[in-house]
Amino acid sequence: MARMSPIFRRTDRRTEKKAPQDRLVTLIGKPGCHLCDDARAVIERVCGELGATWEEKDITQDEELYRKYWEQIPVVLVDGAQHDFWRVAEDRLRRALTD
Predict the structure, then answer these.
(1) CA torsion sign, 52 to 58 to 59 to 63?
(2) Cis upstream peptide for 6 (omega within 30°)
(3) 19-69 per-position pLDDT tens digit
(4) Model's pTM, two decimal places?
């Protein structure tokens, strides 16, 4: 069966809003990084308040992540897309998870 044209759909799946509980925040950093510690505190607070899931990845344990992000850590991804680096703005992260 052919897919229905977005014109006829009631909602466009590309613009559907996800609940914070359905979002994934990823912190990419490394041990001993004070900016990573600051970012972790913001992510823990915001994700804890909104019920979003978060994970942490260590660039020293993943060669691909190291090559891609070593100059930018900490890097924050929201649902796999880069959201922030170096400093994490609490209000900006909150908006990304709720808008």
Answers:
(1) negative
(2) no
(3) 988 999 999 999 999 999 999 999 999 999 999 999 999 999 999 999 999
(4) 0.81
